[in-house]
Amino acid sequence: MTEEETDHMSLQSEENPLPTIIMEEAQVANATKPQVGCQAKVPDGTKLMLMPIVPMYHGSTALEAIYMSSPAITTLCTAKTWQCEARLDFDGEAHCIRDDLLPRYAKYWDMSKPVLFEKGPRGMYDKIIREWPEIDKELKEEGPKLDKLGFGTLKKAYIMMWRPICLSLLSSHARDDLEADPKKFAQDELQWLEDLVASHKYLLDKGEPMMVLNMADLLWKTDYAKNKLETFTPCVGELNFDYVPKMGKDIYEENEWKAEGSVKAFGESVDPWDCCGYSLEENQCMTSDGAPDNAYVFHLLEKDERARAALAIGYLVARS
After folding, report:
1. Beta strands, E only, the chain
2. Cβ neighbours for 155, distance < 8 A, ≥ 6 positions apart
3. Are 115 and 236 in contact (CB under 8 A)?
4. What is the CA radius of gyration of the chain?
5. Which residues share a beta bridge with 62?
6. Is 201 in a helix, a strand, or coil?
7. What is the pTM for the complete model shown?
8. Fewest C-beta in 10 Å: which of 46, 173, 191, 320?
9. Are 47 and 154 in contact (CB under 8 A)?
């Protein structure tokens, strides 16, 4: 057995704190009442800004497609940016995030809708700690201007989605990065996970309603994911996982929308075990002989990095 294989196995055994961490975090999560992003109806004179927190190429397009099925939602797709993302150069000129953020978005949202969906990307903690203060500042200092644009009272809610490491195999971007430099890929994935944890703690400290979702549940446990999303955002009504965004209505050619078909259809076309070694029964990545394998790729990291990965995964699992 090689040294690398030995390190991998040790991460699954006594050196791997993941089972204990998951148990401890689950106790914390069970003691915490689930949050709600909105009530059954957004009150008149109020808007809800709904924001996913998903790393780039980690499934945010699938999440947006599901929310497009709701008539209560408006997106930024009319800006005709790539993948409907909230680029800061809608007008062809670069802008700072601290530069009239909400008024620029209002040009493309249908302000008659109660729920303003802003896809991001915002997987990076650095983006969160720059964006939140700017929105807060605009709400405090530009009230009359925002009222004229139709914002009224603006509430915020966040949906965080994370990807179990073995589901990286679903992404062509991840597969390319993994092939090019496996260790760097592992380090990048660790950074994404830690950024999600830091963002979650930051926004909870700010009093923002949040929920956490496992990408595997979005794809293969659709009843569970549907109930969780609808419970968190009842104001959007029923969500349709079979929905396919419509060209000219939901999306436009310039968006270069990469997803084909519905989220549910994609999940049904891919077996989680065959594609990725993901067990729906155990809710985690597994080895071929049935042992937990949350160390997939992470076994390439140094011992302290592996411990950090286990901590981040445990934090997110407990809240999913």
Report:
1. 46-53, 73-74, 115-117, 153-162, 210-214, 278-279, 284-285
2. 38, 42, 46, 47, 48, 49
3. yes
4. 20
5. none
6. helix
7. 0.87
8. 173
9. yes
